[in-house]
Amino acid sequence: ALRYLRTSEIKPFIIFIKPPSSTCFLESRLKYNAMFTSEDGSATPCSEGIISAVIEKSAKLENNFGHLFDFVIVNDDISRATEELIKVAGSVSKDLQWVPAAWVE
Which of 29, 74, 85, 90 is most open to solvent, judged by the fewest CB atoms within 10 Å of its CB? Predict the structure, then answer.
């Protein structure tokens, strides 16, 4: 879908929220009793298997579509990641951005 969104009509700024290392990920999710919601809407407690799957899927996304990402934020600290996301979103709305030449012709 990312490939199809990257058009002159939409002009997206794509921010990829990357999971932290598996150790950091598991510790933070266990600390807050995090639940993961599956595609069918059911919630399950955090587990090493789920975290491994999330990290694996994230790596595949980054490998396949990383060239389309305008910015990457590692979610190793939720407060810092949130602040960074707000900062990046603010700069996107104020600062000039590079776009392919074909988009402005």
Answer: 90
Backbone angles phi, psi at 3, to 5 degrees: -60, -40
Residue with tokens 């600062």: 95
Q: What pairing do the DSSP bridges indicate for beta strands 43-45 and 35-37? A: antiparallel
At 39 the pLDDT is 84
Phi then psi for residue 15, to 5 deg, are -110, 125
pTM of the predicted model as reported, rounded to 2 decimal places: 0.77
- How far apart CA 72 and CA 74 sit, in angstroms, is 7
Write down the residue that tokens 């639940």 correspond to. Answer: 35
With H, G, I as helix, E, B as strand and everything else as coil, classify residue 77.
Answer: coil
